[in-house]
Design brief:
heterodimer; A: MetI-like fold; B: mainly alpha
Chain lengths: ~290, ~270
């Protein structure tokens, strides 16, 4: 490889990411301390109004009043993302483990079946749940079939949002968990059995610890996109319960408060970067323990 | 064997897995099934009909959105694959490269950060520099987040390929570009193809960024579908969704089959 190519081969990738990602994120940071323009948009300045707005509202006499409504949205976003991650984890471990016990041919087929729905457009997948959970949809029909008389209404509930989020991202959990349990040495489980460990003990003391890199990796892959999710809260949650993603979206759509939207986007970015840093530190610690 | 198997098997895991796979395919099946429903109401079945496909295909706004999506996806695929291929070549073939780790992180950056943040970032950037052409905006933004998806299979293929062939070509006085064109590229072609197809699908499917950058004449198919969903569910939507599902599944199968074949050949 020529010396010149080494340099310019990476130039397009760096230029693209600098121009469309790294520089724009700095601009977002700049906008978040800017001032709201008179007709939407914003004006450059240094003003922390947008961040103050997250915690306080202005009272009658311009005094700051603590108002947790945006903190509640942030907490709700974290809660839903954690919930969807936990459900995905609880489902993925048994399913991935079961797949790893099948024959080589079946394993390849089953993993293909896990990834296949992920290729289907996100909007179509969310729409499908809208039909299933909606009025006279499949969920209500099944509910009535089992004797339920007054249908509770499945759509626009926290449950609907969680189902949509788990459905959207669970392949990202199953793949790393499967990669981890697939490498598991069966002799270890047999050894645990020979030492009079129950199945539950083997699961708790052998399988889960050895699969933990996959469990953690999958959790991050699900948790991060769930934090920024937009479609599920809008369509399955009915848009009544705001999440950080929809809140940001609203500021750049109808509400036209760019500095505030940018400030929420920065909070979201900081949350995600924190998760990634914590994970990187955990990974290096693990490497040190192994070494 | 049977004793050892029974120790490793857990009661209930099999049933749970079967229910899981049913649940995974239920929504797709429901959309396809109701797309053939004669009734105006999505979930009230009255008879078999293909009329909603005719309605969908004669909907001009829908066809316009499809055209926007296809143009953006093809251009983003070409740009993203080219950029990813160049980056992957340098990152796998240049020994002692400085900034290797940070360069890999930069290429994969769109995967690490929430899309809504990136969408806001490009929207503000484009409005600041006065870039108002909707199509150019979409292609630029899509190229950025498609690049890591194109990068991963290409890099995997380059890493899995023995260096002997390229060395042999160089020993025979092939110029660097000839080595690339006649040896490296043909050998990594399955990876390049898989990367390009993945980039295409990711671009076609994107909602968050395309919705943020939405403007007249640059409404992509998912954004248009979203506006239809807001007006209420119709069998026409199911027909469109079914066509999209069919296209995605065909592309996905193509990529996975080619990948599997490439893996077998290299093994």
């Amino acid at each position: 490889m020529s010396k010149g190519f080494r340099i310019w081969g990476l130039v397009p990738a760096w230029a693209l990411m600098l121009l469309t990602l790294i520089l724009p994120i700095f601009i977002v940071a700049g906008v978040s301390v800017g001032e709201r323009g008179a007709y939407g948009g914003f004006e450059w300045s240094f003003d922390l109004t947008a961040y103050r707005q997250i915690l306080f509202t202005l009272g009658w006499t311009d005094e700051l009043e603590f108002d947790p409504k945006y903190l509640i949205i942030i907490a709700r976003t974290l809660g839903y993302a954690a919930g969807a991650t936990a459900i995905s984890l609880l489902l993925a471990l048994p399913v991935a483990y079961w797949i790893s016990l099948q024959s080589a041919r079946d394993k390849a087929l089953l993993i293909y079946l896990v990834t296949l729905p992920f290729w289907v457009s996100m909007i179509v997948r969310v729409y499908a749940w809208l039909i299933i959970l909606g009025n006279d949809g499949m969920a209500e029909t099944v509910y009535r079939f089992f004797g339920g008389s007054d249908v509770p209404g499945f759509l626009f509930t926290p449950g609907a949002m969680l189902v949509g989020m788990v459905y959207s991202y669970i392949p990202l959990m199953i793949l790393p968990v499967y990669a981890a349990v697939e490498k598991l040495d069966p002799a270890l489980i047999e050894a645990s059995h020979d030492l009079y460990g129950s199945r539950w003990t083997a699961l708790r003391r052998v399988i889960i610890p050895l699969a933990s890199p996959g469990l953690v990796g999958g959790s991050i892959l699900v948790f991060v996109p769930c934090l920024g999710t937009v479609l599920e809260p809008m369509l399955l949650g009915g848009g009544r319960q705001l999440m950080m993603g929809t809140l940001i979206q609203n500021q750049f759509g109808g509400a036209r408060d760019w500095p505030f939207g940018a400030a929420i986007a920065m909070v979201l970015l900081v949350l995600v970067v924190l998760v990634l840093i914590l994970n990187a530190r955990r990974a290096t610690r693990q490497l040190e323990v192994q070494a | 064997m049977s004793a050892s198997r029974s120790v490793r098997h857990y009661p209930g895991f099999r049933l749970l897995s079967l229910v899981f796979f049913l649940w995974l395919y239920l929504p797709i099946g429901v959309v396809i099934f109701y797309s053939f429903n004669d009734n105006r109401l999505v979930s009230v079945w009255t008879g078999f009909s293909t009329k909603w496909y005719a309605t969908a295909l004669s909907n001009q706004s829908l066809m316009d959105a499809l055209e926007v999506s296809l143009v953006v996806a093809v251009l983003s695929m070409i740009f993203a694959t080219t950029i990813a291929l160049l980056a992957a070549l340098v990152l796998t073939r240049a020994p002692g490269l400085k900034f290797r780790r940070v360069s890999e992180t930069v290429v994969n950056l769109p995967l690490l950060l929430p899309e809504i943040v990136l969408a806001v970032a490009v929207l503000i950037l484009f409005s600041q520099i006065g870039l108002n052409n909707g199509m150019v905006r979409l292609v630029l933004a899509h190229t950025a987040f498609c690049t890591p998806f194109a990068f991963m299979p290409i890099r995997a293929r380059l890493q899995g390929m023995p260096l002997d062939f390229e060395e042999a070509a160089r020993d025979l006085y092939a110029a660097p570009f000839t080595v690339f064109r006649r040896v490296t590229l043909p050998m990594i072609m399955p990876g390049v193809f898989a990367g390009a197809m993945t980039a295409f699908v990711i671009s076609m499917d994107d909602f968050i960024t395309s919705n943020m950058l939405n403007s007249g004449g640059a409404t992509t198919l998912p954004v248009y579908i979203f506006s239809l969903i807001r007006q209420g569910t119709t069998p026409e939507l199911n027909a469109v969704s079914t066509l999209l599902i069919a296209a995605s599944l065909i592309l996905a199968t193509l990529v996975l089959v080619l990948n599997a074949r490439a893996m077998r050949r290299s093994a």
